[in-house]
Records
---
Amino acid sequence: MNSIVEPLIGGVIIGIATSLMLFFNGKITGISGICANAFTSLNKKDFWRISFLLGLIVGAIFMKFFFPNFFNYELNFSYIEMVIAGLLVGFGTQLGSGCTSGHGVCGLPRLSARSLVATLTFISFGILTVLVRGL
């Protein structure tokens, strides 16, 4: 399959899924917000968060089992670089009141000015990181 088609299909699926979640449940599909609040209050009305996260894990296992060729890549980073990157992402999601999926995929379609600023910031620093790492 063409290298452009697969990401395009994935993006369309993500867009449809977030739209369905907002339309039918009134919930924003921002992963950092779902993770942050999944285990804070374990009651029936918040069970959807745990179900959503379990669905992500089961979906990934399904994909790895049935489509292992999608996972044929190599990470050229040390463990310390990945830990630092993870901590920076966690700090950034706290600072930005959300993550790329929440702001970029869910906030921009709702015409949120805060999401526009956050998404531009995330993308700008992502580009800067790639440029600096490439030096």
---
Amino acid sequence: MTFSELIRSEKPVLVDFSAEWCGPCRMLAPVLEDVKRRVGERATIFKLDVDRNPLIASTYNVMAVPTLIIFQDGKPVWRRSGVLSAVELTNTLESFMEPAAV
């Protein structure tokens, strides 16, 4: 699956633009694991190494790592650089999700 296919999802797709050498990126890894547990299948979360994917990083003007971008239907709908808390990130992701069926 290509990057453009992956972000063309109806459910939100959180992309962590990061690099192996980046200290804050390593700090964000357990936060993203926590967020993944909280949102389950309602969103997709994945890490993209900017050094291995410079064209994609350039396409989305990623100048600093970590940069988090939420995509929906192939379009960026939210972005932030730096480390966020699991609660803040979960709340942000949930604002782009369909309400859970009751």
